[in-house]
Amino acid sequence: EVQLVESGGDLVQPGGSLRLSCAAFEFTVSDNDMTWVRQAPGKGLEWVSIIHTGGYTYYADSVKGRFTISRDDSKNTLYLQMNTLRTEDTAVYYCARKGYSYGYEDAFDIWGQGTMVTVSS
Amino acid sequence: SSELTQPPSVSVSPGQTARITCFGDALAKQYAYWYQQKPGQAPVFIMYKDTERPSGISERFSGSSSGTTVTLTISGVEAEDEADYYCQSSGSSGFSVVFGGGTKLTVL
After folding, report:
1. B8 at the A interface (CB within 8 A)?
2. Interchain CB distance below 8 Å, B99 and A60
3. Closest residue of A to B3, CA-based?
4. Residue A52 near residue A101, CB atoms below 8 Å
5. Which of A85, B46, B59, B72 has the greatest number of CB atoms lying within 10 Å of its CB?
6. For residue B63, what are the CA distances in angstroms to A15, B21, B51?
7. What's the pLDDT at B21?
8. Terminal Cα-to-Cα distance of chain A (whole angstroms)
9. A14-68: per-residue pLDDT in tens?
10. Whole-angstrom distance, CA of residue A118 vs CA of residue A107
11. Least confident of A34-48, A99-113, B9-23
């Protein structure tokens, strides 16, 4: 079954760091644009970052300089390294696949179940 | 501007038609995509390229586009359609991504 499984969410103090992982099954991460999207408690979806097949990366202004998106092709896994965390980074973090290769253009057709990050002292 | 604006809420009775709009300058040049999210669940992709429905999504869902506004229409609304709906497009640079604020659909 095609799926994404996130892990790594935790409770962390402000200023701390955390790395999220997103393991892909039944498709190859490096063949697809992959993204991270977050959702603060009771709020809407907020795009965080994207990595294109060619390795180009882009970030929302709210995380630029603090977060780094990457992938490990040997592990078929996407990552989000989060540094200098703030209380406003508290959210469920989802990874998702862009469905361009499947005819869906810029739609994100496969989503993980999400992992919770709580930034609090 | 790369913002997408949605009404916070829409309410309809079962069997009626619900229309959820999404407005943004970017939509004049970029496609819109729609997601359905139920409480405690991940978003589900329900519409792409303004009007195309992926396989497995009910025919009661349809999309339309006019200028800087796209509309998700749900015909014959059922209780199970109660959820949050988000539109999405590309940012002004074409490289980033933007989501609308979301619309809570309530089935009365």
Report:
1. no
2. no
3. A46
4. no
5. B72
6. 43, 10, 4
7. 98
8. 39
9. 999 999 999 999 999 999 999 999 999 999 999 999 999 999 999 999 999 999 9
10. 28
11. A99-113
In a mutagenesis test of the B interface, which of A2, A52, A95, A105 is the best target, namely the one with the most B β-carbons within 10 Å? Answer: A105
Strand partners, A106: none
User: Which residues from chain A sit within 8 angstroms of residue B30, using beta carbons?
Assistant: 106
Strand partners, A82: A18, A67
Q: What is the pLDDT of residues B20-75, one digit of tens each?
A: 999 999 899 999 999 999 999 999 999 999 999 999 999 999 999 999 999 999 99
pLDDT of residue A101: 84
**Sequence-distant (≥ 6) Cβ neighbours of residue B58 within 8 angstroms:** none
Asked if B102's CB is within 8 angstroms of A94's CB, the reply is no
- The residue written with tokens 């644009």 in the block is A33
User: What is the rounded average pLDDT for all residues in chain A?
Assistant: 96
Nearby residues of A56 by Cβ (< 8 Å), 6 or more positions away: B95
The answer to whether the CB atoms of A44 and B42 lie below 8 A apart is no
pLDDT at B2: 67
Q: Which residue of B has its CA nearest to A93?
A: B42
Contacts of A106 in chain B (CB under 8 A): 30-31, 33, 88-90, 97
**What's the CA gap between B64 and B85, in Å, rounded?**
15
Q: And the tokens for A30?
A: 């490096």
